[in-house]
Write a structure and sequence with these properties.
Layout: E1 2-8, H1 14-24, E2 30-36, E3 41-46, H2 51-59, E4 64-71, H3 80-108, H4 111-132, H5 138-168, H6 176-200, H7 203-213, H8 216-235, H9 239-262
Antiparallel strand pairs: 1-3, 1-4, 2-3
Helix pairs in contact: 1-4, 1-9, 3-4, 3-6, 4-5, 4-9, 5-9, 6-7, 6-8, 8-9
Length: 264
């Protein structure tokens, strides 16, 4: 048995982890995978050649690079049911806050909140795909991924079109207070999720769960919406909200294109 370590330079949130798992699903040589998102590394215990695994990782264009390969003894596998529970918790939290942010974003006329809600929905799609297709075929996973990617792309493109309409049309002032309060609530919910997951899992899994919450993209997006809300109030302009909305919509579109690429 061999252990190979990969650097994945663009793996900065759980969505990338789920995409990598889907991509490598079906490769029988893989016995175990361990993700370290903060360190952007992936350790794979495998038998046989690493070539097919390495090729699959490179095809994702996530900055994958093989660091080392060495002989090792096969360690205990992660508990599948435990991983399933983690996915359910993360999915429910992400989808719940998608509904909250979408509703409050529409009510407050904030494109930043609407865009952030779609980022939460994008994560929900990835985890939903993983759960729905557990035990299924690779073809089944790809079909579900294709539907999710198309739906996500349509929503993000529609939101981006609304941002352009507001840029070119009459200015709409969002409710800055709602932007700030809802974004703070999202951060608190992520902290609660981290606490619950750490309490119920092993050290290795807790490491993965910590990275699940405190990822650079999610933190930047939430702080970005809060900052935009403060600037909306300070400048008495809706432009900061449109700017953060544009950035997040582009990130969601990028994620949708990655999912669609996996579905090919």
């Amino acid at each position: 048995m061999e252990k190979t370590i990969f650097e994945i330079s663009k793996m900065d949130c759980p969505s990338e982890e789920a995409l990598i798992r889907m991509k490598l699903d079906g490769i029988s040589d893989i016995k175990k995978m361990s993700f370290d998102i903060p360190q952007r590394s992936l350790t794979i215990i495998h038998s046989g050649s690493i070539d097919e695994i390495e090729k699959s990782i490179l095809e994702l264009n996530l900055g994958g690079r093989k660091i080392s390969t060495e002989e090792t003894e096969l360690q205990e596998f992660e508990n599948e049911e435990s991983q399933r529970r983690v996915l359910w918790i993360v999915l429910l939290i992400n989808f719940g806050f998608f509904l909250i942010e979408m509703a409050t974003g529409l009510f407050s006329k904030s494109m930043g909140l609407v865009a952030d809600s779609l980022d939460m929905l994008a994560d929900s799609f990835v985890y939903g795909i993983s759960l729905f297709a557990v035990g299924g075929t690779v073809l089944r996973k790809k079909r579900v991924a294709k539907l999710a990617g198309i739906f996500q792309l349509i929503l993000a493109a529609t939101g981006f079109a609304e941002v352009l309409r507001r840029f070119l049309g009459a200015e709409i002032m969002p409710d800055y207070a709602t932007m700030i309060y809802v974004s703070i609530a999202t951060l608190l919910a992520n902290g609660l999720c981290l606490y619950l997951l750490q309490k119920s899992k092993s050290k290795e899994e807790a490491h993965m769960k910590a990275s699940l919450i405190f990822t650079s993209n999610d933190i930047i997006i939430n702080l970005g919406v809060i900052s935009a809300g403060l600037l909306v109030n300070w400048l008495n302009s809706g432009t900061p909200d449109l700017i953060i909305g544009t950035i997040v919509f582009l990130l969601v579109i990028q994620g949708a294109l990655r999912i669609l690429k996996l579905a090919k």
